[in-house]
Amino acid sequence: MRPTLRPLLLQDLPFIHELYNEPSVHHQAVLTSMDVSLEKLEALLRYWLTDAKHLHFVIEDVDGTPLGLSQIFEIDRINRTCEVGALLLPRSQGKGIIALLHEHQMKVARDVLGVTTIHAQTVAYNSHSLHVLEKLGFQQQGIRKRALYRDDEFHDIVQCAKSLV
Questions:
Q1: In 10 A of CB 129, how many CB atoms?
Q2: What is the sign of the dihedral through the CA atoms of 106, 76, 111 and 141?
Q3: Which intervals hold domain N-acetyltransferase (predicted)?
Q4: Average pLDDT value for residue range 45-49
């Protein structure tokens, strides 16, 4: 299955609400809160859609069913850096989609935005995400110790980067 990407729209709010409130997505990603309300997400989407430091794409399967969200954010045009991330619903995980998304993100960052270094972060216990990032040439830059509180305990966040030059 080869997913397609299209720009995020305000009409995607119900899907983004589902995605951000999906327990398995929340567990695997560096998201700070669970049970995000529609009102908070609508404000967040409006910000993403109008701020030049963010590019978001909805990932869809061949019949147009949303699978996840591809994010290029914290775009810094002076220092030529950005951060990338992706969120997938459980039915789409484990199919190689994340690697394809990161390849797309690197191409957009390099060829469209002129970025020379991209950053990504993941929760330290997410070994699958770390493996994909390393496979794509990201290198660990550091660990933010006890940076995320989830499930009644603190977790480390691994910071990675990749040069695009």
A1: 22
A2: negative
A3: 3-161
A4: 95
Query: Which residues are within 8 A (CB) of 127 and not within 5 positions of it... i.e. 6 or more apart?
Result: none
CA-atom Rg of the chain in angstroms: 15
pTM here?
Answer: 0.90
Write the single-letter amino acid at 75.
I
The domains found in the chain, sorted by start residue, are: 4-118 (3.40.630.30)
Q: For residue range 94-115, list pLDDT tens digits in order.
A: 888 888 888 899 999 999 999 9
